[in-house]
């Protein structure tokens, strides 16, 4: 069935999230009829490789440094239609990659860059298109497109951090506020501000992730998620799920704290008409943003039933816990998550 190169890690601030996603897929990919090469990209851009036989132990690591210490380094050679991993140490084997499965999160990976590289050299790349990845990561563009097609989004404005007087930002709506980096995932850099007096600190926190950020009007609602799987042969929406954290925002730090009280919701917790609306709008958003492969579409659901688009994750994060990610989301179609991953890798 060919060799799949799973690329993970990367140089973004979501490096750790990408490792967790790769770790979650090790037991799944080991059951498929593919030779899998796991390509860890260090935070400095070095490529370090392990195969499926050793991936489980390699990825069971608390820090990327431990991976660097134990994995052999490779160089990437590209020509039209060919991707080869050549070892720095000559005694090790080389690998010819037939399909790239990118598991990068955040900038420099989930932003269309790896997809563009593969497209330029005519290498098969599973998952999102160049445009779909780039648009999905850019919160301002994705919200603008979705809003222009009649799907509600929270009120927001774009703030240019370099030129705005942060002590007196001009905003078209009142607080509370949620401040987000424009192109970042996993809730990294997201802050809550009760009023304008707290905006300075929140916007400054977003500064390290880019020159622009989004300031949104805070929405008191349940977060609702729906996965969409679309390839050349299949188009499915998953069951929906949701969560109601005990804080105004579900921050990156909160996601890493298993002790945080989070009320997790499953498909049966929602009325049938809500499930249908979420699935229908998830399909619409996915198509509007040039979706391909497996993506997660996130919404806010207000108490009055209003549904607002939040964001699309073109490469959704995973953990091995069945409560995290889409492991139990496909029973409505009689398939398992393993089948969804297999479909992603189908030529």
CATH architecture of the largest domain: 2-Layer Sandwich
What's the CATH H-level superfamily name of the largest domain? ATP-grasp fold, B domain
CATH topology of the largest domain: D-amino Acid Aminotransferase, Chain A, domain 1
Uncertain ranges: 250-259
Helix content: 25-40%
Can you write the helix and strand succession as a string?
EHEEHHEEEEHEHHEEEHEEEHEHEEH
Tally of separate helices = 10
Which whole number gives the mean pLDDT? 85
Q: Helix- and strand-based class? A: alpha+beta
What would CATH call the class of the largest domain? Answer: Alpha Beta
Largest sheet properties: 8 strands, mixed
Descriptive report:
Helix content is 27%, strand content 29%. With 347 residues, it is an alpha+beta fold. It has three domains: 3-126, Rossmann fold, CATH 3.40.50; 135-152 and 220-345, ATP-grasp fold, B domain (D-amino Acid Aminotransferase, Chain A, domain 1); 156-217, Dna Ligase, domain 1 (2-Layer Sandwich), CATH 3.30.1490. Helix 1 crosses helix 2 (52-59). The radius of gyration is 20 Å and the shape is globular. The model is unreliable at 250-259 (pLDDT under 50). Belongs to the D-alanine--D-alanine ligase family. GO terms for molecular function: ATP binding; D-alanine-D-alanine ligase activity; metal ion binding. Mg(2+) 1 binds at residues 298, 311.
Labels describing this entry:
single chain; 347 residues; alpha+beta; Rossmann fold; D-amino Acid Aminotransferase, Chain A, domain 1; Dna Ligase, domain 1; 3 domains; eight-stranded mixed β-sheet; five-stranded antiparallel β-sheet; 10 helices; globular
């Amino acid at each position: 069935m060919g060799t799949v190169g799973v690329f993970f890690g990367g140089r973004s601030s979501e490096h750790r999230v990408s490792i967790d996603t790769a770790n979650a897929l090790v037991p799944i990919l080991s059951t498929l009829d593919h030779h899998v090469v796991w390509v860890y990209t260090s935070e400095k851009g070095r490529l370090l490789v392990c195969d499926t036989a050793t991936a489980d132990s390699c990825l069971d690591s608390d820090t990327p440094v431990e991976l660097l210490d134990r994995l052999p380094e490779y160089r990437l050679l590209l020509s039209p239609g060919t991707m080869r991993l050549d070892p720095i140490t000559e005694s090790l084997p080389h690998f010819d990659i037939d399909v790239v499965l990118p598991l990068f999160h955040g900038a420099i990976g989930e932003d269309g860059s790896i997809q563009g590289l593969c497209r330029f050299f005519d290498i098969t790349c599973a998952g999102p298109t160049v445009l779909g990845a780039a648009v999905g990561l850019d919160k301002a563009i994705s919200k603008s497109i979705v809003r222009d097609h009649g799907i509600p989004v929270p009120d927001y404005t774009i703030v240019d951090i370099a030129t705005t007087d942060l002590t007196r930002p001009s905003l078209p709506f009142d607080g509370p506020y949620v401040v987000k980096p424009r192109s970042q995932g996993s809730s990294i850099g997201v802050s809550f501000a009760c009023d304008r007096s707290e905006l300075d600190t929140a916007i400054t926190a977003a500064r390290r992730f880019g020159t622009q950020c989004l300031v949104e009007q805070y929405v008191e609602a349940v977060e609702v998620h729906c996965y969409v799987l679309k390839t050349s042969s299949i188009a499915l929406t998953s069951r929906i799920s949701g969560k109601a954290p005990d804080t105004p925002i579900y921050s990156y730090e909160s996601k890493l704290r298993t002790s945080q009280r989070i009320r997790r919701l499953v498909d049966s917790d929602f009325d049938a008409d809500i499930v249908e609306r979420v699935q229908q709008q998830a399909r619409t958003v996915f198509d509007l943003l040039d979706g391909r492969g497996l993506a997660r579409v996130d919404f806010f659901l207000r108490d009055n039933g209003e549904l607002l688009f939040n964001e699309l994750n073109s490469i959704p994060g995973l953990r091995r816990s069945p409560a995290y990610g889409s492991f139990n989301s496909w029973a409505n179609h009689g398939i398992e998550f393993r089948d969804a991953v297999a479909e992603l890798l189908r030529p």
